[in-house]
């Protein structure tokens, strides 16, 4: 047979009275019979796939340059139920400018970016993780002398992560009236591996997260929901007096291996949420999507 492209029939080589393939216009045939005979060869490269070929113009097409920002709402209990909003932007600078405006920073260069989230980067293998919080109600350690901080932080965190009934309202980040501006999910994300203490102990207000998975896919609300469960399960290991540090690290390494294969699931279940879904256009009930991209409006 001849080449699958060109101005000659690929079956007989005839060059006169040819008709193009109606789908791709790249291959010519002398008869319908020869086109039918050649279809098995030509099908793989024929461009008659209008829905696939036009996907890039679709508002829901995943653009490699698109930036996904996950807004983590505050005041929601144990850190597993925080409402989240996915924001889609054309570029990182546009995403950061939006966060700057929402958080009330006067200048973009003044906006603080927190990247030390050891469980997310060490065990869940996020290739990048950036957190932005309200500067008016967040001032993370060290705020005082290091020695004082070391003595006070375990006591303060015990109040948040205690399972005793009398401090349950603080653990669940609720105030006396059942409402609080504390952000339990962000508090979890700041936990250290060596002692389980969080560097985001007083995280308050709505927060914004930009990150990428180990496969350099965007971190979505699904991924952060899984991360919150990962941290919640991990914290139970620190409260187990019989679990040694070596055993604890072995457990975390095992979970990390499972997570890298898409096999890890939280002890309490996933609530019907795909914890590994990185497609920002997939909807989850209660987690809206806001498309800020120019000329596009994902619905």
From TrEMBL:
Residues 9-46 form the MYND-type domain. The keyword Cell inner membrane does not apply. PROSITE patterns: ZF_MYND_1, ZF_MYND_2. Transmembrane segments: none annotated. SUPFAM superfamilies: HIT/MYND zinc finger-like (SSF144232). GO terms for molecular function: zinc ion binding. Keywords: Metal-binding, Zinc, Zinc-finger. This is MYND-type domain-containing protein. It comes from Phytophthora fragariae.
């Amino acid at each position: 047979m001849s080449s699958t492209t060109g101005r000659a029939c690929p079956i007989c080589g005839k060059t006169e009275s040819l008709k193009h393939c109606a789908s791709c216009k790249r291959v010519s045939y002398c008869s319908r019979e020869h086109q039918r005979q050649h279809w098995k060869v030509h099908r793989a490269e024929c461009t008659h796939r209008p829905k696939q070929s036009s996907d890039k113009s679709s508002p829901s097409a995943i653009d490699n340059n698109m930036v996904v920002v996950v807004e983590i709402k505050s005041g929601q209990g144990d850190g597993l139920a925080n409402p989240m909003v996915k924001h889609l932007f054309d570029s990182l600078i546009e995403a950061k400018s939006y966060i700057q405006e929402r958080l009330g920073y006067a200048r973009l260069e003044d906006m603080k970016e927190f990247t030390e989230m050891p469980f997310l980067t060490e065990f869940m293998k996020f290739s990048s993780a950036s957190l932005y919080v309200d500067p008016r109600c967040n001032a993370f350690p060290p705020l005082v002398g290091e020695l004082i901080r070391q003595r006070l932080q375990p006591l303060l965190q015990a109040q948040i992560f205690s399972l005793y009934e009398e401090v349950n309202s603080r653990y669940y980040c609720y105030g006396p009236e059942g409402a609080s501006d504390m952000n339990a999910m962000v508090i979890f994300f700041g936990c250290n591996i060596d002692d389980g203490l969080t560097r985001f102990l007083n995280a308050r207000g709505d927060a914004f997260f930009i990150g990428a998975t180990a496969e350099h896919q965007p971190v979505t609300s699904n991924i952060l929901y899984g991360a919150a469960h990962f941290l919640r399960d991990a914290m139970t290991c620190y409260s187990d007096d019989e679990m040694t540090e070596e055993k604890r690290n072995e457990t975390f390494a095992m979970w990390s291996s499972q997570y890298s294969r898409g096999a890890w699931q939280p002890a309490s279940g996933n609530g019907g949420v795909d914890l590994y879904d990185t497609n920002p256009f997939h909807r989850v009930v209660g987690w809206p999507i806001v498309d800020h991209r120019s000329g596009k409006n994902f619905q």
